[in-house]
Amino acid sequence: MFCPLDCWDSCKLKVKSEKLKVKFEGDSITPYLCWKLNNYFKFPSETTPKYNSKNIMLNETLDKLADILKNKGPKRVLFVKGSGNMGIMQNVTKLFFENYGATFAVGSTCDGLGEEGIIKGRGKSLILPTWIIKNAKNIIIWGRNPYVTNIHLIPMIKDKFTVTIDAIETKTAKNSDLFIQVKPNSDFYLAILLAQMVIESEQYEVSDNFDEYKKIVFSYDKKDLMKKCGINNEELMKLFEIIKQGGAVLTGLGTAKCKECWKTTWAIDSLFYMLGYFGKKDRGVAFLGSSGYGINNPFSMNHKNKVPLWDVNLDDYEVVFVQAGNPLVSFPNRHEWQKLKNKTTVVFGKYMDETAQIATLFIPSKDFFEKKDVRGSYFHEYVITNEKCKVKNEKCISEYELTKFLMNEFGFTGLKSEDEYIEEILNADLEKTGDEIYRKRVFDKPPYSDGFFTDNGKFKFLNEDFEYNKKPFEIVTAKHDKALNSQFQRDEIIYINPNSKNIMLRWVTENIPEKRVVFTENIPENIIYAKGGSVINEFINCKGENAYYEIH
Ligand code: SF4
């Protein structure tokens, strides 16, 4: 069985029953679990369906959903899926809504922007298998805090020389051998600075458009770059010496927070391509890799009707079907999502969260351990299944069961059995390494050792300039160790340095309730630091498919 949460580790776990209580325990590749799963049942789910906040029976809920969809018609229906459960079977509902003709809100709150830059250079964003991380001499953690977000990485790197590059002195930074503190959203400039040094050293690898890249690299002035990053020559030289030796570069969401930051992940890849980091057994670069690579996704489709998530205008829809998400809290563009209160909002989920509370119809979904499913990981090379699920829960409904009901109700054909889908997902080059766990054989070789996933199979260097518009103050968002998105125990505080510029202090006073502000000199000046988006998302506005976190 797997933990379904939107987390790097994708833990394998066992379910134990003790004194009539269900408990989870770590298993095989992840022998222990984090605070969230250890406290899972302290956050009770809602198992009673509701219509206008009144309890109703599950069969009544399903009839009401069918009536709503029949009466309003597909043109007025928007489908929005959050990332509350990362199992592939969760996507089966898309089969019905695609047949029905709804519009899909497509995009990401999280890694989409950084992935965009990686795809430009490599064609696909792949994980770095754990055996390569274990082989690596040095670990370079760039814009990521694995002590909080990826705890099973820590034992793999504890005896290695570790460098952390970040805007905030995180727990990971404190536990590193070298901490390079950069200004927020300046990672592009650091990658360019190091690229200048690599090219000047005359030991580097090239690809087709290298000359174009070199021109961009040297269009920046070294002193200016150092000022923009906020680092000194000594730090720069130390970092340069380490990256020349090779290692595993583990980048995180901290590198891709601003609108143009897709160029940052591309600049980082271009730097390490020159240094020969790809296709090797003891080095590599990984962001959040594709969890679906090496397995099949029977629900992957090109939607007939779609809209970029951050361009959604809810005035265009009457019905919004929200699955496993809490847009009222987790999404930027909050002013737009507030309109859900005036729509026929259907929430299909587990918790009575802010969005469920305002929903016209609440459909309780079965819990992850009550349904069959499969998940990959954006960190490791394993695939974990929930194949032997025996729990009987008749009050709630799984994604597959809801889809089956709707397909029948609307006379749509083509839905396969649950087991057929599971088989299809796993019909890939996998080695069964234990009960409900497989290893992707595609990662027996280093990623990209047979070339890149670009048109000509070669790496494509960065060919775009980047000019970050410096702001009077910056937002830095991170994860909290006791919360995931809007689930569990949120940290609804912003942290600021009291010595920051007046313009920022004034903005905070005018916009954030006093009880939500903590003053600390541990945060650099002129930064608003938030662990999670519940407070700050109110002020973040984005456009397009991929969210970025800037105050305008
Ligand atoms: S939230 Fe992450 S670390 Fe915690 S149990 Fe789930 S996958 Fe593992």
Automatic annotation (TrEMBL):
Top-rank lineage group of the source organism: Bacteria
Molybdopterin oxidoreductase domain: residues covered: 59-374
Entry's Gene Ontology molecular function annotations: iron-sulfur cluster binding; oxidoreductase activity
Protein known as: Molybdopterin oxidoreductase
Gene3D superfamilies tied to this protein: 3.40.50.740, Dimethylsulfoxide Reductase, domain 2, Formate dehydrogenase/DMSO reductase
Signal peptide extent: none
Keyword set, alphabetical order: Iron, Iron-sulfur, Metal-binding
SUPFAM superfamilies from the UniProt entry: Formate dehydrogenase/DMSO reductase, domains 1-3 (SSF53706)
The species this protein was found in: Nautilia profundicola (strain ATCC BAA-1463 / DSM 18972 / AmH)
InterPro entries per record: Mopterin_OxRdtase, Prok_Mopterin_Oxidored
